[in-house]
Design goal:
Elements: H1 2-23, E1 49-50, E2 57-58, E3 69-70, E4 73-77, E5 84-91, E6 102-109, E7 113-118, E8 123-129, E9 133-140, E10 147-153, E11 156-161, E12 164-172, E13 175-183, E14 189-194, E15 197-198, E16 203-206, E17 209-215, E18 221-229, H2 233-243, H3 250-265, E19 268-271, H4 275-287, E20 293-294, E21 300-303, E22 308-311, E23 318-319, H5 323-326, H6 330-337, H7 339-355, E24 365-366, E25 369-370, H8 379-388, H9 395-407, H10 421-429, H11 454-474, H12 478-487, E26 495-496, E27 501-502, H13 534-537, H14 545-552, H15 555-567, H16 574-580, E28 587-588, E29 591-592, H17 611-625, H18 643-651, E30 653-654, E31 662-665, E32 672-676, E33 682-688, E34 696-702, E35 705-706, E36 711-713, H19 714-717, E37 721-728
Parallel strand pairs: 33-37
Antiparallel strand pairs: 1-2, 3-6, 4-5, 5-10, 6-7, 7-8, 8-9, 9-18, 10-17, 11-12, 11-16, 12-13, 13-18, 14-15, 14-17, 19-32, 20-23, 21-22, 24-25, 26-27, 28-29, 30-31, 31-36, 32-33, 34-35, 34-37
Helix pairs in contact: 4-18, 6-7, 7-8, 8-9, 8-11, 9-11, 11-12, 14-15
Length: about 750
């Protein structure tokens, strides 16, 4: 009997262990796509259903989480933050329209599938995605009524025939997207929607076209699976059959999608912290895979940059990347964890430069071409960063295309025209001139709304020229390296040594009088800066923070001015402040957590001899502005631009200066961090005792050796490394504070 009891007890223990293992969360289970789904002011984060970097990208067709109605159901989102190409509507009503708005309830989103009840909870819709295909399943609570499914294109062709439907939609002058799909149930009537009725016509080429499939009463469930393509309708069908070889197997699509996301997110493993912190981390990491998207289809791709189909030569082609936002942290994150993908992305951008005919490195490569938004030419930064981290990039080709983009294209924001008047002025004087009060614009390249953004463009171009010097140095082109290094100090030309700010200067070399660093510069401060005020751009010298410290009067003075930035009042009520500076949300004093030029600011204390303040500020920023709720992102996320900061900072380090193979140390949220590196290597960070209270580093070792620097190099970790941090509740103000421990910068002038 005792033996039997032992066996029973052992069986219970074993069963308990199995249950515990079964219920253990995997990385994808921590992802909460609703984080940030209500914007603080501008554009929310959309709950995106998509496999990593895939062309098939979906999110609910509404403006944000509080929107009452869905504007139909999505087929594919072709441009980040913009509407779906094609839309699908499903109804059991008699009134038929191309798009049928519907209320929604019981919505559930994961990275790989989407479930929602629509039409007053009478229809269940379920969607799952592959890379270039997807599958819908519709279940009807009352199958006694006939059901109609409608497929709509805004500007293209639609065809319906039996169980099959296909169509196209024009995205730009030289680009279309195609879909081809099939239903698992035979409709009782198929045709095009005309005047609210299903006609016998089954194919059309009109600006707006809608196919309709009516299913008979008694239909309980309908599935629709489809492929998409930028090449042709036939290729869309091939993509569907390649990815969904088994007919209408939604369970397999879900299983495969979940597996791929788990494998991808498992590049980062953490222990300690709270479940909310893990949700914020893994959701942020998932966000970094929304863009750019891979366009290769069976070894070929369509490029809007020349309107042609190309053989990809075994290297996938990527686009849809706002580099102004993503060069700072999203590209370095990929260079660290997925270097081969980063190599292919950079190669894609070099091909774009060639396909456009200008050989200018793109700045905002989107599905429909390079939109040249924002300012500066920061593609050069991702190239320099990749080269010095050992990635395989065609350095000579990249140098030339980056150089041409900087020197031949105008520096005027939001513009892809050849260089003009202000560009010649910059070459001769080393800064972009601001317009004096009342002075009229004389350069036709400057747009009425975006303005010259003289300080932002001067500082951004100085950084770009430093990055160009780094590529030249890598190529051992000494003269070019020296030339562009000298130009990288142009930020000094707009430094006001009396106020210790970068100050707009007119064409005669005079600082604009009575200039207000909080509110000068008009809407978005664009007459001087860009989207942010002078307090943010005061720190926009990523490549030479040691020289900036000297300009401010030394490291102690820099630390004091950083303190002022976090303490300085907004100066107006929130309504008045955000009316002028809507991008500058997520404030801590004059610091804004919501916009990319601010991301490195908390780490600058490492350059000022006060690493403990970096540790304090990083925890303050993460705890205050990134939370596991629908308002948990303080500003525009921009496809990984903001959330890559969260990933790095949660793990405990950050690439302040893309172009230097180095990372600043912050304050890890988790007691144990493991980052998979190529070749089976691993970066292991142990933060002993880390908690909300224990945020300060007391001491450190790297690979068993004492480490008294608030940074480490890429070479220190690329072959695997273990960083051990002893954490405590009070700062060790001596650790990492020696001047010799300062993170790398360009030479002090």
């Amino acid at each position: 009997m005792k033996k039997n009891l032992k066996n029973v007890f052992a069986a219970i223990v074993a069963l308990t262990l199995v249950c515990c293992q079964t219920n253990e969360k995997e990385p994808v289970d921590y992802v909460n796509p609703y984080i940030g789904s209500i914007s603080h002011l501008l554009v929310p984060c959309f709950p995106t259903i998509q496999l990593p970097n895939s062309l098939m990208r979906i999110y609910p067709t509404r403006s944000d989480y509080t929107t009452e109605m869905l504007d139909g159901l999505p087929i594919v989102v072709t441009n980040h933050r913009e509407r779906s190409a094609f839309r699908l509507s499903v109804t059991q009503g008699d009134e038929l329209r191309p798009i049928i708005p519907t209320n929604w309830d019981h919505e559930r989103v994961t990275p790989y599938d989407y479930q929602v009840q629509i039409a007053d909870n009478t229809i269940d819709a379920h969607l799952a995605v592959c890379h270039q295909s997807a599958i819908y399943e519709f279940t009807f609570a009352d199958p006694s009524k006939p059901a109609t499914i409608l497929l709509f294109t805004e500007n293209g062709r639609m065809q319906a025939d039996g169980k099959h439907a296909s169509g196209s939609q024009r995205l730009s002058k030289n680009m279309k997207i195609y879909f081809s799909g099939e239903f698992d149930v035979q409709p009782e009537k198929v045709g095009l929607l005309q005047d609210g009725k299903i006609s016998d016509k089954w194919i059309t080429e009109e600006p707006r076209a809608c196919a309709a499939m009516r299913f008979p009463a008694g239909t309980k469930k309908v599935q629709f699976r489809y492929g998409i393509s930028l090449i042709s309708q036939e290729q869309a069908e091939k993509n569907l059959k390649r990815e969904q070889a088994e007919d209408f197997n939604m369970a397999k699509v879900i299983k495969d999608g979940r597996k791929e996301w788990n494998e991808t997110l498992s590049n980062i493993r953490v222990e300690g912290g709270t479940d909310d912190q893990k949700s914020v981390l893994y959701t942020a990491y998932y966000r970094t895979f929304e863009r750019p998207v891979c366009l290769s289809e069976d070894g070929c791709y369509f490029s809007a940059f020349d309107g042609q189909v190309h053989d990809d030569g075994g290297k996938p082609f990527y686009t849809d990347d706002w580099i102004w936002d993503t060069y700072r942290a999203a590209h370095p994150l990929r260079a660290l964890i997925q270097p081969e993908k980063e190599e292919n992305i950079i190669e894609s951008y070099l091909r774009m430069a060639e396909q456009m005919g200008t050989q200018w490195m793109p700045t905002f490569p989107e599905m429909t071409g390079d939109t040249r938004r924002m300012n500066s030419n920061h593609g050069v930064a991702m190239v320099a960063d990749a080269l010095w981290k050992g990635l395989d990039v065609d350095a000579a080709r990249a140098f030339e295309y980056c150089r041409k983009g900087i020197e031949e294209k105008t520096l005027a924001p939001w513009n892809g025209r050849p260089a003009g008047w202000i560009d010649q002025f910059y070459k001769e004087n080393g800064y972009i001139p601001a317009l004096a009060p009342g002075e009229e614009e004389t350069d036709p390249n400057v747009t009425g709304f975006e303005k010259r953004q003289p300080i932002a463009v001067t500082l951004g171009t100085a950084y770009d020229e430093w990055c160009l010097s780094r590529i030249a140095e890598f190529l051992d082109r000494k003269d070019d390296a020296a030339k562009y290094l000298a130009l990288s100090y142009n930020y000094r030309n707009v430094w006001n040594e009396e106020t210790l700010f970068f100050h707009p200067k007119d064409k005669d070399g005079n600082f604009l009088p009575d200039f207000d660093y909080r509110f000068g510069g008009g809407i978005g401060a664009r007459e001087a800066y860009d989207e942010n005020n002078g307090w943010t751009y005061r720190w926009d010298v990523q490549h030479n923070l040691s020289d900036l410290a000297q300009l401010m009067g030394g490291r102690e003075a820099m630390a004091r001015e950083l303190d002022r930035t976090f303490a300085e009042p907004m100066g107006r009520g929130k309504r008045e402040f955000y009316e002028q500076l809507p991008d500058q949300t997520g404030n801590i004093g004059q610091f804004t957590m919501a916009n990319e030029p601010s991301l490195h600011i908390p780490y600058i204390y490492n350059y000022a001899g006060a690493p403990w303040k970096t540790q304090k500020r990083i925890r303050q920023c993460l705890d205050t502005w990134f939370r596991n709720d629908v308002m948990g992102i303080p500003g525009d996320e921009d496809g990984g631009g903001l959330t890559s900061f969260v990933v790095f900072s949660s793990l405990g380090f950050y690439p302040v200066t893309p172009g230097f193979p180095a990372y600043n140390i912050g304050s890890p949220l988790f007691s144990d961090v493991r980052v998979k590196l190529p070749g089976g290597k691993e970066l292991h960070i142990v933060a002993k005792g880390s908690s909300r209270e224990n945020k300060y580093i007391q001491s450190a070792t790297l690979n068993g050796q004492p480490w008294d620097k608030p940074w480490f190099s890429h070479d220190d970790i690329k072959d695997g490394a273990t960083l051990v941090l002893e954490m405590g509740s009070r700062p060790n103000k001596e650790w990492g504070s020696a001047e010799s421990a300062t993170p790398p910068s360009a030479p002090v002038k």
